[in-house]
Automatic annotation (TrEMBL):
<dbReference type="Pfam" id="PF00067">
    <property type="entry name" value="p450"/>
</dbReference>
<dbReference type="InterPro" id="IPR001128">
    <property type="entry name" value="Cyt_P450"/>
</dbReference>
<dbReference type="GO" id="GO:0005506">
    <property type="term" value="F:iron ion binding"/>
</dbReference>
<dbReference type="GO" id="GO:0016705">
    <property type="term" value="F:oxidoreductase activity, acting on paired donors, with incorporation or reduction of molecular oxygen"/>
</dbReference>
<keyword id="KW-0489">Methyltransferase</keyword>
<dbReference type="GO" id="GO:0008168">
    <property type="term" value="F:methyltransferase activity"/>
</dbReference>
<keyword id="KW-0349">Heme</keyword>
<feature type="binding site" description="axial binding residue">
    <location>
        <position position="447"/>
    </location>
    <ligand>
        <name>heme</name>
    </ligand>
</feature>
<dbReference type="InterPro" id="IPR036396">
    <property type="entry name" value="Cyt_P450_sf"/>
</dbReference>
<dbReference type="InterPro" id="IPR050529">
    <property type="entry name" value="CYP450_sterol_14alpha_dmase"/>
</dbReference>
<dbReference type="GO" id="GO:0032259">
    <property type="term" value="P:methylation"/>
</dbReference>
<keyword id="KW-0479">Metal-binding</keyword>
<keyword id="KW-0808">Transferase</keyword>
<dbReference type="GO" id="GO:0004497">
    <property type="term" value="F:monooxygenase activity"/>
</dbReference>
<keyword id="KW-0408">Iron</keyword>
<keyword id="KW-0732">Signal</keyword>
<comment type="similarity">
    <text>Belongs to the cytochrome P450 family.</text>
</comment>
């Protein structure tokens, strides 16, 4: 309505009525301003700010492809704890800080009233890795959660896996000592996958298919390349190589699983995880190869880099290496040489649960997870919701960055420096309570293999620093390469190390 025209067309209004109209109009305007101000103060109305560069549209994806970690730190500094990031192929809304941690991880996507879905977000980002069928086996996926917990994380199962891991560690480290100079991250990949394949599929699979460990190393390194993650449909040399690698992995897994199904009774005495699954739930043959493809990938993606970065930092600091050696050679160390498998499994469970003051080695592990935290986790909005006053429509991909949280200088003094002593038990409890440390995820989707991974890492590190001297052939460790990293990143250049058995060890 044009008020100027209305008043002009009614010049003879009584003064009292004219005054009342003006007062009513003024009151309405004041109310609107007051309401907007009140909502703004309460955070009820906010507009999502998108990260921008000097090159519209193409700038953010180009910058992200080059140095994603630097982009996220810059975006938070410029835009705060909530911002949008348009990467053309995918749009994300990043939520950061303790409140975001609480909201992001505590949303329960197992009910009809869910807000955020883990599965749908992961499916969209990993379809090129595992195929579209992985999350279609609804009945199997729910059963698989329980199988992983009972089959990979229960104390009796862990005690068995510990015996398998011990024999692998001793053989592998003796081989390291004979190599002279070795590529630390590549060798940690081989050791890790050798142990995981033995625990999950049986040691005979390592003997029959020795290439499987190296295939997973290449599989991870290629997984986030643009030619694979975004343009796998285009017949580039990179895409063709990735398909060959994945095809061979699946072929090996299907061969092993098919042979087990052909003689379930004959293999019933085996104790590996595959046999545990078949003994418990033999009715899902079509889902088995995908199940093991993903579990072995998950075992590789963070375990390898955690193992290697921790070794590299300890080996490059003589004082720290002496302190670690003194600790692991003491009778009080929970992973001492004389400990039996059930004791070692119990120690791994306790360390994973942060019970008691952490030994120095485990503080080093926590610091590795902090310093080289995953770039981001994702969820998909299932029904319209909001965070911090910003509307999030259904289908929005929400991301949370452990990396950004762990590099916050207001929380972590000298956040870019490796300092395991920052993780005393009280400090770790405070960081966890305040939701400022998130190495293994949280809530329903916390890492289900955390206990097994802790035992793997601890046995490798303890045996290595108890019985060997380790040095790295570099004055300063290279920076992590977050471009293309799906989990804890590898270094931008190789880290070469030398391992020598200690006299009398």
């Amino acid at each position: 309505m044009d008020l100027n025209a209305w008043f002009a067309g009614n010049p003879n209004l009584p003064p009292a009525l004219l005054g009342s109209c003006l007062l009513a109009l003024l009151a309405a305007l004041l109310f609107a301003v007051s309401l907007r101000s009140s909502r703004a103060e309460k955070g009820e109305i906010r507009t999502l700010q998108w990260y921008k560069t000097g090159f519209p549209l193409l700038g953010p994806p180009a910058e992200f492809q080059k140095a994603p970690e630097e982009l996220l730190l810059k975006a938070r500094k410029q835009l705060g704890n909530v911002f949008g990031l348009n990467l053309l192929a995918k749009r994300f809304v990043f939520v950061l800080g303790p409140d975001a941690h609480r909201w992001f991880f505590n949303a329960d996507d197992g009910t009809s009233a869910s807000e955020l879905s883990f599965e749908k977000a992961i499916e969209a980002l990993t379809r090129h890795l595992f195929g579209a069928g992985l999350y279609r086996f609804t009945a199997w996926n729910e059963k698989a959660r329980k199988l992983i917990i009972t089959g990979l994380a229960s104390a009796p199962r862990l005690a068995y896996y510990t015996t398998v891991i011990q024999s692998h560690v001793e053989r592998s480290l003796a081989g390291w000592a004979q190599k002279g100079t070795l590529d630390l991250f590549r060798e940690c990949s081989r050791v890790t996958m050798g142990m995981m394949i033995a625990c999950l599929l049986g040691d005979d699979v390592n003997e029959r298919f020795p290439e499987l460990a190296d295939l997973y190393y290449e599989y991870e390194r290629m997984a986030a390349l643009p030619a694979v993650a975004q343009f796998l449909w285009f017949p580039s040399a990179v895409a063709r190589r990735f398909k060959r690698i994945k095809g061979r992995i699946v072929e090996i897994l299907e061969t092993v699983i098919r042979e087990r199904y052909a003689d379930l009774e004959g293999h019933s005495g085996r104790q590996d995880y595959l046999q545990f699954v078949l003994n418990d739930t033999p009715g899902f043959p079509e889902a088995m190869s995908l199940h093991f493809l993903t579990i072995l990938f998950a075992a590789h993606i963070n375990t390898v880099s955690t193992m290697a970065w921790t070794i590299a930092h300890i080996a490059s600091d003589e004082a720290l290496q002496r302190a670690v050696r003194s600790e692991v050679r003491s009778e009080g160390d929970p992973f001492r040489a004389a400990a039996r498998a059930p004791e070692l499994a119990a120690a791994g469970i306790a360390i994973a649960a942060n019970k008691g003051e952490l030994p120095l080695l485990d503080k080093c592990m926590r610091e590795t997870h902090r310093l080289y935290g995953a770039l981001f986790f994702v969820r998909e909005v299932q029904r319209p919701t909001s965070f911090d006053g910003i509307p999030l429509p259904k289908g929005t991909t929400v991301a949370f960055s452990p990396f950004v949280m762990h590099r916050d200088e207001s929380v972590y003094e000298k956040a870019s420096t490796f300092n395991p002593h920052r993780f005393s038990k009280p400090a770790l409890e405070e960081l966890t309570t305040k939701r400022q440390y998130v190495p293994f995820g949280s809530g329903r989707h916390a890492c289900q293999g955390q206990r097994l991974v802790t035992i793997v890492l601890r046995l490798v590190w303890t045996t290595l620093f108890r019985e060997y001297d380790v040095s790295v052939e570099i004055n300063e460790l290279p920076a992590p390469e977050y471009a293309g990293a799906l989990g804890i990143p590898q270094p931008k250049s190789p880290v070469f190390a030398r391992v020598r058995r200690r006299e009398g060890a």
